[in-house]
Specification:
The protein is an alpha+beta fold. It is built from four helices and ten strands, in the order αβββααβββββββα. One of its GO terms (molecular function) is cholesterol binding.
């Protein structure tokens, strides 16, 4: 088990990595799934042997309220059907924390429940917000869970210029689920999880 890293340099590095992902040319992405709520693309990750996923869709709400539903806090557990528990383990500042959360089994439990410990950081970006995270090797792994690992990931949320009451939400996710899993099952689950994330979030914001 590692000691907790210094939060300030980690937050800066994480933000810079996400901004770099955000500038990857469209030609490098391949469409993985498209629904009325969101489009998901993917490209080989430079962090591990899986994929970096990009998800994007327009959400009818203001930026702050959307990000409040995404970042660690009381809202997330209420609407995110994949997340089964969440605890804030450490808080550095108001916008910076370490959280432990668990996810439900997927694909008829081919993918068993997972546990993650993530450093999370929310900061301003252009006219909106960026909420990003990365997994840490920290804390004891609980029985009955495989410990997964999130390589740098995050959500950019910016108001649409002509419709400020609507926001463009763009996510970058690269999750190493670990354990003995066929890669095809992981890829199917990731694309579906990301499109479901948008439809669940939209329902929660309208509730």
């Amino acid at each position: 088990m590692d000691l907790l890293p210094d939060s300030a340099p980690l937050a800066t590095k994480l933000r810079n990595t996400l901004v770099q992902y955000h500038s990857i040319a469209d030609s490098e992405w391949r469409v993985a799934k498209k629904t009325k709520d969101a489009t998901v693309w993917r490209k080989p990750s430079e962090e591990f042997s899986g994929y970096l996923y990009k998800a994007q869709g327009v959400v009818e709400d203001v930026t702050n309220r959307i990000v409040d539903h995404i970042r660690p806090g009381p809202y997330r557990l209420d609407w995110d059907s994949l997340m089964t528990s969440m605890d804030i383990m450490e808080t550095f500042e108001e916008n910076c924390c370490v959280m432990r959360y668990t996810t439900a089994g997927q694909l008829w439990n081919i993918i068993a429940p997972r546990e993650f410990v993530d450093f999370s950081y929310t900061t301003s970006y252009e006219d909106g917000l960026l909420s990003c995270g990365i997994s840490l090797d920290y804390g004891e792994v609980r029985p009955n869970f495989v410990r997964g690992f999130n390589h740098p990931c995050g959500w950019f949320c910016v108001p649409l210029k002509d419709y400020p009451s609507h926001s463009l939400l763009t996510g970058y996710i690269q999750t190493e689920l670990r354990g003995m899993l066929p890669q095809s099952a992981v890829d199917t689950a990731m694309s579906s999880t990301l499109t479901n994330f948008y439809s669940d979030l939209k329902k929660a914001l309208k509730a």
